[in-house]
Write a structure and sequence with these properties.
The complex is a heterodimer of chains A (about 230) and B (about 425).
Chain A (H helix, E strand, L loop, with lengths): L4 E14 L2 E14 L3 E5 L6 H8 L7 E6 L2 E2 L5 H11 E4 L11 H10 L5 H14 L15 H13 L5 E5 L7 H18 L2 E6 L2 H4 L4 E6 L2 E7 L5
Parallel strand pairs in A: 3-8, 3-9, 6-7, 7-8
Antiparallel strand pairs in A: 1-2, 1-4, 4-5, 9-10
Helix pairs in contact in A: 3-4, 3-5, 4-5, 5-6
Chain B lengths: L1 H10 L5 H37 L2 E5 H5 L10 E2 L1 H11 L3 E16 L5 E12 L8 H4 L2 H4 E4 L7 E5 H6 L7 E7 L5 E12 L4 H4 L2 E5 H7 L5 E2 L1 E6 L6 H14 L9 E5 L6 H37 L1 H9 L4 H37 L1 E2 L14 E2 L7 H4 L1 H21 L2 H6 L4
Parallel strand pairs in B: 4-9, 6-8
Antiparallel strand pairs in B: 1-11, 1-12, 2-10, 3-4, 3-7, 3-11, 5-8, 6-9, 7-8, 13-14
The chains are: A alpha/beta (about 230), B alpha+beta (about 425).
Chain lengths: ~230, ~425
């Protein structure tokens, strides 16, 4: 199943209404992502990276074209079916972490599992395992306000990974971090990508992140300008 | 999930404590306003019934044409027989005769010359019989400021303000001037046994209370009285029951063609009490509706702001795979819980304060110096069964409506937009 295609985008077009006219954010995007890929969408602001991630993450639908994610056609999904797809198959990592401030680290990570039918014991085991992946088991009871930016983003990674999704979408995950923390969190994600064979798709213009990518897709004005596989010397 | 949400409510004070305080305040103020209005209206009805109107009043047909004039020459006669008839036919009421009069009283000095003189309104009541309830109806014993209750014929109570103004004290003798039932001059000497303060400006300015038999003697009204008042044994006015009694009593004397034959009228037929009750009900209803609406808008906005503030959280929850409907329903559950807790606390405090004011009252006598209304100067709230739940109306409904409206945004905004608001 190494070559299993989990994301297939065919002639995607996304238009947003602007007054009586509209703005075209994506033009004829056709891409495929295989299981286990560590890929990045790069490009300047306004190039369509986040819009594309939103469609892949079933948070938005294309105006034209077909988006198929883990066997589901995004165009046809109801709110409920899209939520189900995200709940079981897709993890999100945000630029600003977006941890829920009133809950502690454990609760934040556990939340992703509460929507699934799991027992408290199963949830606890999964959460502690996810925190171990990111090296934060000792911070399980801490509130996000007491954590550094890097630690917060590691909690966000644990939250995205705890349900062992097939696909993780990370929108500028290192934008708010210094270089040490940026390297650390990308390394963590790379390690999880290898160990769990999870597909990671980033949107980024951070050089430090790009160094780790196996595939770099350059977007310019909503179009794919280049799609390049990167060979790393391990 | 429920425990997770509950944890959120408890830990996020802006999501729990603040809305609970706002809801609680709203519910408390609603309860206080409601019980205040009920108290003022209720006290006025009781006071008017006890002093003036009874729950049902029997007067002569001529008197019934202008009942507010208290014309002594239009009084009822053969009242002993009439009371017997009334007690026989309407046994669940206490029937008492009274004579109300307007007169002049004159206090002489040691030389017999006029020292002080003034007009008064007076009541001839049964205050000397051992089992009379009239003393309680007029709240006489607690209202005595100086002196004592009349214990024998020829003694009178006068209002304290009048006594102070004319420098009169218990033991002083005065002459009552008036007109008899037949239109002649009436004179009678009385001794002031005590002074009273009723707590209603219209009475405290100048009133006199004498025993009914003394009044009958003074105004030459043997076996006659200006009116016979009927009071329900429960002492609570009931419009429907009063109407039935009125119809029954009038039917008893329907065949009597005498223009002085007895006629029954209810509390609502007298002294604008019907309009007063309707007016009080309408004003009370309007005030409470306005207040509840105002509170609802405040609480609704609170719910709306609370909901809007949480769009980031909703975005995270959507991204993590929670369904929009699930988020919306959980928002409403939270609102119901907050609304119930806030309303419960607010209503509890509101009822406690209302109960306290019901017991001790607030003296507004200073503000009612010129009032001619028979209204109590000590205003009390009234805790009724409605008091216990009225606060829940703005408390629960408005915060739920506020959250429901805020939550509609979850549906109206596209998922992607809600999600993107995470980055704002």
């Amino acid at each position: 199943m190494e070559n299993e295609i989990i994301v297939k985008l065919e002639n995607l077009v996304k238009r947003f209404p602007v007054g009586k006219s509209h703005f075209t954010a994506l033009r004829n995007i056709s891409l495929e992502f295989k299981k286990g890929e560590f890929a990045g969408l790069v490009g300047p602001s306004g190039s369509g990276k986040t819009t594309l991630l939103n469609i892949i993450g079933s948070l938005d639908t294309p105006s034209e074209g077909i988006a198929t994610v883990i066997g589901k056609r995004i165009n046809d999904l109801s709110h409920k079916a899209a939520a189900h797809l995200r709940n079981y198959n897709i993890g999100f990592i945000f630029q600003t972490y977006n941890l829920l401030p009133v809950y502690n680290v454990f609760d934040n990570v556990e939340f992703a599992l509460l929507l699934q039918k799991m027992t408290a014991t199963e949830r606890k085991k999964a959460v502690m395992e996810a925190l171990e992946w990111v090296g934060l088991t000792d911070k399980a009871k801490s509130k996000p306000a007491l954590l550094s930016g890097g630690e917060c983003q590691r909690v966000a990674i644990a939250r995205a990974m705890v349900k062992r999704p097939a696909l993780v979408l990370a929108d500028e995950p290192s934008a708010n971090l210094d270089s040490v923390n940026s390297n650390h969190i990308v390394q963590t994600m790379k390690q999880l990508n290898r160990e769990l064979n999870t597909t990671f798709i980033f949107s980024t213009h951070d050089e430090k992140v790009m160094r780790y990518l196996d595939r770099v897709i350059q977007l310019v004005d909503g179009e794919v300008a280049s799609d390049e596989l990167i060979k790393h010397e391990d | 999930m429920k425990i997770f949400l509950l944890k959120g409510i408890l830990k996020d004070k802006s999501r729990s404590l603040l809305p609970i305080i706002i809801v609680g305040l709203g519910a408390m103020l609603t309860v206080l306003l409601y019980s205040w209005l009920k108290g003022v209206i209720g006290e006025s009805i009781i006071m008017n019934a006890n002093f003036n109107t009874g729950h049902v009043k029997v007067i002569s047909r001529e008197q019934a044409k202008t009942p507010e004039q208290m014309a002594i020459d239009l009084s009822l006669v053969n009242i002993a027989e009439l009371k017997k008839e009334l007690k026989k036919n309407v046994s669940d009421m206490d029937w008492v005769e009274r004579i109300r009069f307007g007169s002049l009283i004159d206090f002489p000095d040691s030389e017999g010359e006029t020292r002080a003189q003034g007009p008064v309104i007076g009541w001839g009541l049964d205050i000397l019989s051992p089992n009379t309830k009239e003393r309680e109806r007029f709240n006489l014993a607690p209202s005595i400021k100086r002196g004592k209750m009349p214990s024998k014929h020829g003694e009178a109570l006068i209002s304290e303000d009048f006594a102070e103004k004319f420098e009169v004290k218990p033991g002083d003798v005065f002459t009552l001037f008036g007109s008899t039932m037949e239109g002649g001059m009436a004179f009678q000497n009385f001794t002031v046994s005590g002074t009273v303060k009723f707590g209603a400006q219209v009475l405290d300015r100048g009133a006199i209370i004498i025993d009914i038999q003394d009044a009958q003697q003074a105004f030459q009204m043997p076996d006659a009285a200006g009116e016979i008042l009927g009071f329900f044994n429960s002492n609570l006015y009931d419009t429907e029951k009063a109407m039935k009694v009125k119809v029954k009593v009038n039917a008893m004397f329907a065949s009597d063609t005498d223009k002085y034959a007895p006629a029954a009228i209810t509390l609502q037929d007298q002294e604008g009490m019907g309009q007063y009750l309707d007016y009080a009900d309408a004003i009370g209803g309007i005030l409470i509706t306005i207040f509840i609406s105002a509170m609802a808008i405040v609480l609704w906005n609170s719910g709306l702001l609370g909901g809007l503030r949480r769009y980031t959280e909703f975005g995270v929850r959507l991204a993590l795979g929670e369904d929009k409907t699930h988020i919306y329903v959980s928002l409403l559950y939270e609102a119901v819980a907050i609304g119930l807790i806030g309303s419960l606390l607010g209503s509890f405090v509101g009822v406690l304060i209302s109960y306290w004011i019901q017991q001790v009252g607030i003296d507004l006598g200073g503000m009612m110096q010129g009032s001619t209304l028979m209204m109590p100067t000590v205003i009390r709230t009234a805790v009724t069964p409605t008091t216990y739940y009225i606060g829940f109306i703005p408390g629960v409904f408005s915060i739920v409506i506020g959250n429901a409206l805020a939550g509609i945004g979850i549906y109206k905004r596209s998922t992607a937009r809600l999600f993107n608001e995470l980055e704002v």
